[in-house]
Structure formats: structure tokens, C-alpha cells
Amino acid sequence: MIIDAHAHVSPTTYGATEQYLKVLRQSGIEQAVICPGAMLDVRKMSEYVSGQKKPDAVPKNDYVSQSVQSSPMLIGMACVDPCDPQAVEKLEQYLEQGFRGLMVSPLVHKFSFPDDNMAALATLCGERGVPIISHNGWRPGANTADYVLLAKKFPRTNFILEHMGALPTDVEAANAAAELDNLFLETSLGSYLHVSETVKKTGASKVIFGSEYPLSHPALELQKVFLLPLSDREREQILGGNIRGLLHLA
Q: What predicted TM-score, i.e. pTM, was given to this entire model?
């Protein structure tokens, strides 16, 4: 079974769940892990980077919940702002509602991975057996090294780093994933060479297929994995087996 482990849905013209489900079927993907989208309009990323636009800091978790209820293909990850004093309580509520993990967004919410609030969320995720997924914030406190230190501090919690860490090749992310049992790398937007070299270094058990929909198309991202020189078992791990294990899916 192929699972897109990283997609964003939102009540927008470009990220609506109904459209995403059509794309999944066209791509031959049976299940998907969805997170709240549209906090940053991915069509206008340069305007956020330059400071012309500010993110919508309120995650659309309710929309994700409604989407999961509407289709058995979808699995929800909740997003909370670690700076929110009620972040832990909110995450507990979302997990009780059936969400399968935590997404944090250092590009939207101005926290750092070493923060006490982030530590509290990581502790809860470890206790509940659910993973944390995040991208880098490309600023002090929210880079690969900071995420790796968080994973080292909380070995009972599983951490997924989006986009293979980013940049054309994030060697630091690959080295850390090879070293740490609880750190995994997600493939979306990663270069083919970086994905290929990372699998050699970490093994297929540490790499997870994702699309970063709607910024990229699942079928396009899927081709990178199909082109990798892997055994059938290794490809199955990347395309679905690893995320099934992290989310305790049947």
C-alpha cells in the first residue's frame, strides 16, 4: 500500500480536500496523512520570505478532522503552536479526537526546538506513541541541528523531518537519521541524488515518502522513489511501511 505521508489540505481553491482525493486516485495512492494547510499560501512563498505577507497563525485542524471523517483514505495530523500556553492541552484533545500525531511549523509560529513548550509537547507525543513532523525554520533554534538535538533529548518520541532537511543536500540530516533510531526523513521536494544517497546511508527504514501537496504533485514525487535502485521490500518500506509503523496503522 502506498501512503502519502505529508500533504496539506485547506478550505481554499488550491488545497481543498475534494481535489486532493482526486489527485490521490489519479496517482494510485491508497492512503494519505494530511495536515492543516494555507497558514502560508504556498503560491506566494517569496512574499512571506521577504516579509511582505504574514502567515495565518491559526491551524485549520477542524477542516482536517472533517476531511478525515469524510474519507477512509485520510489520516489526520494536528498542528498546534508551541508558544500557546494551552498547546499541550490542545494536543491532548486532538489526540483524543483521533489525530495520529503532531505537526509543528517554525515558519509560521515563532518557537525554537529547544523551547520548554516544545519539550512538553515532545514528552506527550512520546507517552502517547505518536510522531512529530516538522520542517526547518532556517533560523537559529529551528535548524536541522536543533531538531536533531530535540530528537536526542526525547528518544522515546519519533521525529520526522520534512523535505530530507531541505537544501539540495542536507548531509547533517542524513547523518543524524543514520545515527538515531527515532529520526526519519520525508522525501518531498528532496533532490533525487539526496534521496538516493540518504537511503544508502540510513537504510530504507529511515526514509518516508511524502508529496507536500499542494505545492507538489504526489505522482511527481512518487517517481523519485520508483526510480531509486531498491529491492521491492525497501521500496515498500519507503512508500508505506515506515509510516504505517510510526502511526500504528493496521
A: 0.97
